[in-house]
Specification:
With 467 residues, this protein is mostly helical. The chain has 27 helices and no strands.
Length: 467
């Protein structure tokens, strides 16, 4: 019923209609002209004007099914659902086998939450409609709204089996399969779909999303890459390709994808943040800082780029500025343990020792499962000469994370530095059992060559005994 007509023509007809209404002069239009006027108003969300045009059209063509359906659509858009249903009843009396009547009635019932009635109406439309894939798609959506995902999947698959290019049904099926955690089935389905239609960019895109969720990044990259080769203007595919590259530590490729995304849909706070993150990873800290700041200017409450700016400033040894940015991030998100840990480091770098210790304590309280906080905090105390307190801090960390090799190696170092050799050898044995390869961290802790040699002998003895 809706037509592809030029905007200039639309405006001319609408202008003529409005002149007649304004001057209260009589007029006659063809049905097609009324349809154009009503559709124009609907597209521009001027539903009251659309309803006025519907009423004028109905006066001239009281038995037109097309006008009655347009009127019902407009009434529904105005939340006048009872009037819309009454209009559809009149339309059905005039033409009982018009599938559009049942489709629209099903849509109205679905909107107002009367799902059983909506299903009944859509089922009436199945035998009458030429576009059965759309009917099945709408049935799937009703079941999705009812959270009956099994039924929703059943009908969405029916829709796609009839029309393999129904991209909306494809998207909704991906959602339902994701909600029900049927990832393997989803992959099988999309692979089969792609075999039948290898040029569906959306199918490749959805397959990529699934692979990301299954941590199969190489497969995800391949799928997203196919999607953008098929449709180079597919912004979401470029964006997710960039994310997959980022997770796979292919930072230059990630940058290229994010820049292409920006070419298509323009800048955004998240996009700038991801570009900054990629620059950060390739140690282009000035550019990372620039894009983190661009991101936070677009969204002043987006704390991740503010924190990222602090990281870049720290890498550039601009610690006073880093303190400012970390503080700013913490004002927005005070419960972030990682932010407190980096705040502690920055405070230490500028000589705010008391603030640094307080920040480490806050970080450990918020996330005692972050072993790096215990190591960094204890090392600051160790550097101040309080080895006993450094030991106690690592012991607190081990209460939370007893199987963490890094903590066992660190407490070994503190025991040995404090002359507690028996305790040191015991914790060293624990550390070597947990992760032999990380013993290098212990050797690097000591500058004393004699200590390194003595430790190396013990470590070698353990290695030979446990071959």
């Amino acid at each position: 019923m809706a037509k592809n007509y030029k905007k200039k023509t639309e405006n001319k007809i609408v202008k003529l209609f409005e002149e007649h209404v304004r001057n209260k002069t009589s007029f006659l239009f063809e049905i097609e002209q009324f349809e154009e006027i009503i559709n124009f108003y609907s597209v521009h969300n001027e539903l009251k004007k659309a309803l006025s045009a519907c009423q004028a059209a109905e006066y001239q063509f009281p038995y037109s099914i097309d006008i009655l359906i347009l009127k019902a659509q407009t009434l529904s858009g105005l939340d006048q659902d009872e009037e819309a249903l009454t209009t559809l009843e009149l339309a059905e009396n005039l033409q009982p086998n018009e599938p559009e009547i049942f489709m629209l009635r099903g849509s109205i019932y679905s909107i107002i939450g009367e799902f059983d009635k909506a299903i009944e109406e859509y089922e009436k439309a199945i035998d009458l409609a030429d576009y059965k894939d759309e009917v099945y798609h709408h049935l799937g959506l009703v079941y999705q709204d009812m959270e009956n995902y099994e039924k929703a999947i059943e009908y969405l698959k029916k829709s796609i089996s009839i029309n393999i290019r129904n991209e909306n049904a494809l998207y909704d099926l991906a959602y339902c399969l994701d909600v029900t955690d049927r990832k393997e089935e989803s992959i099988t389905f999309y692979t089969k779909f792609i075999d039948e239609d290898p040029y569906s960019s959306l199918a490749w895109y959805n397959l990529g999303i699934l692979y990301v969720k299954m941590s199969q990044l190489k497969n995800a990259i391949k799928a997203f890459d196919y999607a953008v080769v098929i449709d180079d203007d597919f912004a979401s595919a470029h964006f997710n390709l960039g994310n997959a590259y980022l997770q796979n530590e292919q930072y230059q490729e990630a940058l290229n994808s994010f820049v292409r995304t920006m070419d298509i849909e323009g800048p955004g706070a998240e996009l700038y943040y991801l570009i900054a993150t990629a620059y950060q990873h390739i140690e282009e800290f000035e550019l990372g800082l620039k894009y983190h700041q661009k991101s936070s200017k677009l969204d002043s409450l987006y704390h991740e780029p503010i924190f990222g700016a602090g990281i870049c400033l720290g890498k550039l040894d601009r610690w006073y500025e880093a303190v400012h940015f970390f503080n700013k991030a913490l004002k927005i998100n005070t419960e972030n343990a990682l932010y407190w840990r980096f705040m502690a480091e920055a405070d230490y770098k500028v000589g705010n020792l008391v603030s640094s210790l307080d920040a480490y304590e806050e970080s450990a309280m918020l996330n005692p499962m972050d072993y790096q906080t215990w190591i960094d905090w204890s090392f600051l105390v160790y550097e101040q000469g309080d080895i006993s307190k450094a030991i106690r801090l690592i012991e607190r960390g081990l209460e939370e994370l007893p199987e963490t090799a890094e903590l066992q190696y660190r407490i070994t170092a503190y025991f040995l530095a404090n002359g507690m050799h028996k305790d040191g050898l015991k914790s060293l044995e624990n550390a070597l059992v947990l992760d032999f390869e990380k013993h290098i961290e212990l050797l690097e802790f000591f500058d004393d060559i004699k200590m390194q040699k003595a430790l190396f002998k013990i470590i070698e003895k353990h290695r030979k005994e446990n071959l």
